[in-house]
Amino acid sequence: MSESVDYGVLIPLDVYFDDLDPYGMLHNSRYTVMVERAWNTYAFSLGFGAFEEAKPTHYVVKAVGIVFDLPVTGNGEFAVHLWTERVGRTSATTGLPRGQP
User: Fold this and answer.
1) pLDDT per residue as tens digits for the range 55-67
2) CA 91, CA 86: separation in Å to the nearest integer?
3) How many other CB atoms sit within 10 Å of the CB of residue 6?
4) Measured between alpha carbons, how far is 49 from 40 in angstroms, rounded to an integer?
5) CA torsion sign, 22 to 69 to 66 to 17?
6) In sequence order, what are the residues at sequence separation of 6 or more whose Cβ sits closer than 8 angstroms to the Cβ of residue 99?
7) 19 secondary structure, DSSP code
8) Are 35 and 8 in contact (CB under 8 A)?
9) What is the rounded distance in angstroms from the CA atom of residue 61 to the CA atom of residue 24?
10) Which pLDDT belongs to residue 55?
11) Which residues of the chain fall short of a pLDDT of 50?
């Protein structure tokens, strides 16, 4: 995946056949799973939680909001766009992930 973004990171993930609804689109319940996998992949790439000797990563999600700009159709590689909007003393707000089918 050679695309780039002006801010944040693109995390490549695979969409599998069983992630799709009967119309061949990513099922709405799978979007949050893809976002979670993307954040975990990114954290692992930074050395958090990927290995036993790595620093443990603990977080609690208070709320999730997703805007469905475009459907993800078909299976294959998919890029999830991640970025951080705001970081506070006890919390962080991340941007709305947008994918490139």
Assistant:
1) 666 777 777 777 7
2) 8
3) 5
4) 8
5) positive
6) 34, 70, 72, 78, 79, 80, 81
7) G
8) no
9) 29
10) 61
11) 97-101
